[in-house]
Design brief:
Length: 396
């Protein structure tokens, strides 16, 4: 089977830490079938003249192609219209990719769009042009946020039912796809994987020494983009309110993002025990998780965040919001769920989780998730099912 993947969430030379879950899953998939990735790069005229869109200008330096984890990756450019282009983003994206996709005519069996819009929409259009089935993979914000905008929603109501299969990383996303007209028998639940060789219970003191952190006192960890929607600002405020009742406690935020500097300023105003260490290599994340007493991720919306799964695999309890697929894995023993944007509930949960004792090995043992090879096998089966159902329909 020959698979062409279309996605805008994938690492590249300028953003090597981006979307490690896709990199790991697609690399594992390539050991089961032939895979080529079109990892798209946004472009619009004079991007460098607009400070707000400097990231687009930075991406202009990404090479046309590169090899990542053994994957053949091409970086076609697509026309991007900031702020005003949501309604036409799907058709414009598909049109931008058409020349690159047409070069695969007769050389692929299925198109996989990873991210509902515009990637999934474009995957359906391009697959129809190439005469092959399309599969759309759903992640989280693509359905929880983007699919609620009027223009993208219209496009997804057209595209999702036309995909041969839809792949969702959580049960909540299965329901979201069904609500937009996809028959349930064509939706596959394919959880992301976890590298259990890296994410496992480790000695906390040893990890703290490795990172140069204090050995005494509880450490609360945040890993992700530092933005309002990810709950980083809510976390800083709630932690600062709880801190007087948490002797020697510390909050550490790992990650970057468009609102990092604003969040840093807020943290400096509220407490001197809040620190920001910036983006870290994914290979370093297991050590940060080993060093902490608990992870907090008070996002406003999610699909199935891998950082929650990785924390649990590492034997660390989690405070998270009751959104997306998180309630599917976070039982009362594994952590605490709170409503999004509820600072009072978050404050109380942080105090509780940093003062309760638990056995890390028991937390890790309760998490039932595949490794990346297992996740890739499930995705591979979905792609095969798409080919088989298409062949059956054409033969009828």
């Amino acid at each position: 089977m020959r698979v062409l993947i279309v996605t805008k969430i994938f690492p590249n030379q300028a953003e090597p830490l981006s979307s490690p879950f896709n990199r790991r899953q697609f690399a594992a998939l390539s050991r089961l079938c032939d895979v080529e990735v079109l990892a798209t790069i946004p472009w619009f005229p004079a991007a460098g003249a607009f400070r707000r869109w400097s990231s687009v200008a930075t991406l202009s330096n990404v090479p046309e192609s590169e090899s990542i984890d053994g994957l053949r990756v091409k970086h076609p450019r697509y026309v991007f219209l900031p702020k005003i282009g949501h309604g036409v983003a799907g058709p414009l994206y598909a049109a931008s990719l058409a020349p690159a996709a047409l070069s695969y005519a007769g050389r692929i069996d299925v198109v996989l769009g990873s991210w509902a819009y515009p990637d999934g929409f474009a995957a359906v259009v391009l697959a129809q042009t190439l005469g092959v089935p399309a599969v759309i993979k759903l992640h989280g914000s693509d359905m929880n946020v983007v699919a609620k905008w009027s223009g993208p929603r219209r496009c997804l109501k057209w595209a999702l039912p036309r995909a041969e299969r839809v792949v969702a990383v959580s049960g909540a996303l299965v329901e979201a796809a069904a609500a937009l007209g996809v028959p349930r028998e064509r939706i596959d639940l394919v959880p992301n994987g976890i590298d259990r060789n890296k994410f496992k219970p480790r000695d906390r003191a040893e990890a703290r020494r490795e990172l140069g952190l204090p050995l005494a006192g509880p450490i609360l960890l945040y890993i992700g983009h530092v933005t309002q929607a990810k709950g980083a600002f809510d976390l800083v405020r709630a932690y600062a309110a709880a801190e007087p009742r948490l002797p020697n406690a510390r909050l550490i935020l790992v990650g970057d993002g468009a609102e990092l500097e604003s969040c840093k300023k807020l943290g400096q105003e509220l407490s001197d025990t809040i620190s920001f260490v910036g983006a870290q290599s994914h290979d370093r994340i297991p050590t940060w998780l080993a060093a902490c007493d608990a992870l907090a991720l008070p996002s406003w919306n999610e699909g199935m965040p891998n950082v929650v799964l990785e924390a649990l695999a590492s034997g660390r309890r989690v405070v998270a919001t009751r959104v997306g697929g998180i309630p599917e894995v976070l039982s009362a023993e594994l952590g605490i769920l709170v409503p999004p944007r509820d600072l009072g509930a978050l404050e109380g949960a942080l105090e509780t989780i940093l003062t309760e004792s638990y056995e890390p090995s028991a937390i890790s043992a309760q998490l039932d998730r595949p490794d990346w090879d297992g996740s890739a096998r499930l995705l591979h089966q979905s792609l095969l099912s798409a080919l088989q159902s298409r062949a059956t329909r054409e033969a009828a």
